[in-house]
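Anyone up for a design puzzle?
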């Protein structure tokens, strides 16, 4: 009997948590998306505007705080980065298309030559288990960097830490920000479908993602996740 009550309680809690998440659908005609899965996912749930346009500072900060439990200082910094790199410093909003600006020797931006989701087959081949740990994230990031460097004649990626930072961000928000592990199914759903993996068991992390948690994740990875020297 007791067991039954626990199961009933657990399923009603899960259903409640999922019911709160606004409906998901991929972008339709006229809706734009960015090179960033983190904000695309939120737009697909209408947490950020589905249109992908006019993302206001407070809306972005609130969304990243409520759904990803990200520290306000980080989300404010990301917002600033988006408006600065897209050439609209001081603006109160940005469109997702604004941040599709390729980083090269003359343009300082963040969309770069080493995105791991654009070589998903290769990236995914490093993750064979039910969970992904920081070493496995680091191995995939390193492979992406090295392959790109070897095969892309115009490869430009001076700040290797960006890959590690993105991976650490994903780990901290989707998984265990202290252990540095994430259920593989969460990453698949989030990256491939650009969807919050709530129906697969994910819910917003109780632990805040801030510079301390991200830094600790980096320290766990013996130089592959974050790499201080600039090159592997
Ligand atoms: C206003 C907020 C944000 C902005 C402006 C932003 C911007 C970007 C940009 C421009 C990229 C492309 C980098 C590249 O091509 O090398 C990127 C990648 C990425 N972002 Fe964000 N981001 C934001 C929030 C987030 C959040 C909240 C998360 C995680 C929860 C996240 C996770 C990632 C990941 C994992 C990638 C790497 C994708 C890949 O390499 O394929 N971002 N972001």
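Challenge accepted. My sequence:
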């Amino acid at each position: 009997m007791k067991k039954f009550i626990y199961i009933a309680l657990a399923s009603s809690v899960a259903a409640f948590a999922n019911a709160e998440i606004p409906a998901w659908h991929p972008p339709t005609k006229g809706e734009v998306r960015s090179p960033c899965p983190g904000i695309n996912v939120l737009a697909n749930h209408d947490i950020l505007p589905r249109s992908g346009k006019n993302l206001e500072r407070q809306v972005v900060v609130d969304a990243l705080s409520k759904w990803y439990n990200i520290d306000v200082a980080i989300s404010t910094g990301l917002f600033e980065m988006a408006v600065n790199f897209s050439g609209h410093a001081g603006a109160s909003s940005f469109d997702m298309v604004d941040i599709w600006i390729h980083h090269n020797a003359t343009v300082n931006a963040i969309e770069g030559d080493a995105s791991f989701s654009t070589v998903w087959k290769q990236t995914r081949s490093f993750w064979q288990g039910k969970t992904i740990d920081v070493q496995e994230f680091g191995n995939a990031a390193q492979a992406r960097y090295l392959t790109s460097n070897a095969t892309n004649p115009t490869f430009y990626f001076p700040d290797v830490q960006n890959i590690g930072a993105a991976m650490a961000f994903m780990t901290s928000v989707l998984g265990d920000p202290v252990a540095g592990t994430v259920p593989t199914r969460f990453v698949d759903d989030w990256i491939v479908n650009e969807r919050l993996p709530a129906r697969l068991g994910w819910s917003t992390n109780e632990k805040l993602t801030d510079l301390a948690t991200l830094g600790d994740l980096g320290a766990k990875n013996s130089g592959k996740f974050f790499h201080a020297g600039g090159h592997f």
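A detail worth pointing out: The longest strand covers residues 55-56.
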